[in-house]
Design brief:
222 residues, alpha/beta, Rossmann fold, Arc Repressor Mutant, subunit A, 2 domains, 8 helices, 41% helix
């Protein structure tokens, strides 16, 4: 899963990032509220871990603006404040859970697992769109009766397209979700991998599944 950690304390941020990475998650970090908001607004993350006391914008404001922008990514809020009024304020701003500092890393990781279980679609290991299926465990796709082998990056890209079938994804969203927010990739790399997928998924079939929306991005639809 792809998780954003918005935390200005480097020691806490490093510990959380290390713990999440050890459980197999991809992690981005932001050290202030404004940077965290801009990253979270892309909608590419599966979970946001958000501190309350941040430079630029506080966590309450970040959560509220994300919900106003209709970003539905689950938010786990971190704070040193243990007052009931503060917890209520955070939940009302749009947070889904609340963890008071200092916290045990094991508890944070357990809460992350719980959130991701709730948001993971049923049958997440096998995705289907029309006659196309994707086996995430074996990293293989099949369209009708044709088996398709995929590289790791092709599999990640196809998974993202299939989970967002019928929705237009911009090149920026694809780069952030598949290559990572900090990765030094260009839109040309996205175009190349879309071409690779089309060659494997659509070649030889009467109707393409992967479509270009001029001036907007790409979509996968029946």
């Amino acid at each position: 899963m792809y998780i954003l950690v918005v935390e200005d304390d480097p020691r806490v941020a490093r510990a959380v990032e290390r713990g999440l990475a050890e459980e197999g998650h991809r992690v981005d970090r932001a050290a202030d509220g404004l940077d965290g908001l801009e990253r979270a607004e892309t909608g590419v993350y599966d979970l946001i871990i958000l501190d309350v006391l941040l430079p630029e914008l506080d966590g309450f404001t970040v959560a509220k603006r994300l919900r106003q922008a209709r970003v539905r990514t689950p938010i786990l809020m971190l704070t040193a404040r243990d007052a009931v009024a503060d917890r209520v304020r955070g939940l009302d701003a749009g947070a889904d859970d609340y963890l008071v500092k200092p916290f045990a890393l094991a508890e944070l990781l357990a809460r992350v697992r719980a959130h991701l279980r709730r948001t993971e679609p049923e049958g997440a290991e096998l995705l289907r769109v029309g006659g196309l299926t994707l086996d995430l465990e074996r990293r293989r796709a099949q369209r009708d009766s044709r088996a398709i082998d995929l590289t790791a990056k092709e599999c990640e890209l196809l998974e993202y397209l299939m989970r967002n079938a019928d929705h237009i994804l911009t090149k920026e969203q694809i780069m952030a979700r598949v290559w990572g927010y900090e990765a030094e990739v260009t839109s040309n790399v996205v175009e190349i991998y879309i071409h690779y997928l089309r060659d494997k998924i659509d070649r030889g079939f009467p109707s393409p599944l992967i479509r270009t929306v001029r001036g907007a991005g790409y979509t996968l639809k029946e």
